[in-house]
Inverse folding.
């Protein structure tokens, strides 16, 4: 029990009030991070900024190797040993930006060739803000859960920072893990949630085909690399769709083909690369072996060498039903009954999926579009976020951690 128990309604009102008081500062923090984006595993300034603000709130952030940090917010009078008996929740943000030029025209736009075009500046600020609200509740004796704020580096690259966090033991003993992800096609003041797969596994597939090469007038004397490449490009996605349950949402799409330099020469080497995506974790585990077998069989008649390399990226993000219901309920209480919308599945990848292979949790989408305004695409230099989303995100994350389990 908290030292100063309050009703759920009072606690809800306090979270809203404390969030509103912090919003002006949080907007400035977000703009600072946005103006100074940093790439994967180089997020030194962002890590220091977050750590300094947490220390100013009386908390004790723990730096991860390289970049990133985590910080525990515990109920008043509870130490780390006693916290093991409590509900233990992780709120996760990602720190890194993308290597592209910002074209938003904002007065606080980045000019260093990197951009927070996936909303990680918002994610970082909302988790920081939720931590500050929870610290105030803890000081008032009104927090019952043990909460860990996690600021993960390197989400935008593979292998990503989730693996480093897990290897460091940050998720050990955790009961639930939550995250928000900006959605520039969803109006501010809403979240988009979904039970089960919300994002896809994403692997990189590279197929290399080799032969001795030859003249195009004598294709029967050599392995025709170009023709074999064409067969792999067109047939592999179709055959894969007949070997994997279509309900798994497996999709193989090629993005690059490189071979040859002359119209009358059969080259000795060709490479095609693409992505393999899958919404089902079990099918994702099988897909690599199936794909290698399929491509070898497609290329077999053409007397070419074949090498298939599947580089594991991220698993699907599969949301746990009780965790989705919990964060949905928090959003309805702290934003309004209208706040929760069913969101679509995406074939985009997110390394939050690694956490959910170990710990129940949920990722929901945070609306960042101004009502009636323009929809933007993620990973584009012109993206603009309605900053009112920050306060709504703080409420949801603070609420999912602080509100009683019977909400």
């Amino acid at each position: 029990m908290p030292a100063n128990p309050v009703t759920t309604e009072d606690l809800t009102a306090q979270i809203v009030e404390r969030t509103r008081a912090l919003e002006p500062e949080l907007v400035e923090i977000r703009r600072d991070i946005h103006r100074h984006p940093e790439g994967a595993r180089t997020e030194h300034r962002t890590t220091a900024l977050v750590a300094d603000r947490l220390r100013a709130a009386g908390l004790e952030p723990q730096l991860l190797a390289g970049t990133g940090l985590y910080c525990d917010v515990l109920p008043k009078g509870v130490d780390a040993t006693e916290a093991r008996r409590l509900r233990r929740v992780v709120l996760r943000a990602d720190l890194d930006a993308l290597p592209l030029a910002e074209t938003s025209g904002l007065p606080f736009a980045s000019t260093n060739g990197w951009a927070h075009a996936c909303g990680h500046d918002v994610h970082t600020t909302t988790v920081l803000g939720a931590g500050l609200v929870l610290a105030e509740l803890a000081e008032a004796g009104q927090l019952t859960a043990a909460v860990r704020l996690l600021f993960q580096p390197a989400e935008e690259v593979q292998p990503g920072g989730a693996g480093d966090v897990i290897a460091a033991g940050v998720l050990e003993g955790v009961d639930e893990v939550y995250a928000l992800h900006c959605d520039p096609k969803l109006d501010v003041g809403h979240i988009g949630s979904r039970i089960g797969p919300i994002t896809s596994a994403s692997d990189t597939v590279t197929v290399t085909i080799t032969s001795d090469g030859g003249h195009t007038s004598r294709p029967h004397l050599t392995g025709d690399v170009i023709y074999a490449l064409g067969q792999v490009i067109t047939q592999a996605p179709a055959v894969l769709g007949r070997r994997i349950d279509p309900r798994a949402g497996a999709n193989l799409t090629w993005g690059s083909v490189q071979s040859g330099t002359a119209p009358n020469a059969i080259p000795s080497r060709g490479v095609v690369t693409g992505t393999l995506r899958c919404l089902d974790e079990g099918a994702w585990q099988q897909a690599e072996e199936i794909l290698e077998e399929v491509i070898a069989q497609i290329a077999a008649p053409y007397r070419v060498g074949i090498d298939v390399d599947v580089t594991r990226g991220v698993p699907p993000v599969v949301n746990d039903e009780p965790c989705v219901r919990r964060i949905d309920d928090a959003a309805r209480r702290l934003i309004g009954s209208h706040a929760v919308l069913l969101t679509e599945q995406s074939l985009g990848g997110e390394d939050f999926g690694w956490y959910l292979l170990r710990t129940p949790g949920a990722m929901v989408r945070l609306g960042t579009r101004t009502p009636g305004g323009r929809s933007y695409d993620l990973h584009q230099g012109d993206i603009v976020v309605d900053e009112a989303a920050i306060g709504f995100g703080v409420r949801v994350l603070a609420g999912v951690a602080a509100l009683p389990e019977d909400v």
Notes: The longest helix spans residues 8-35. The CA atoms of residues 210 and 381 lie 39 Å apart.
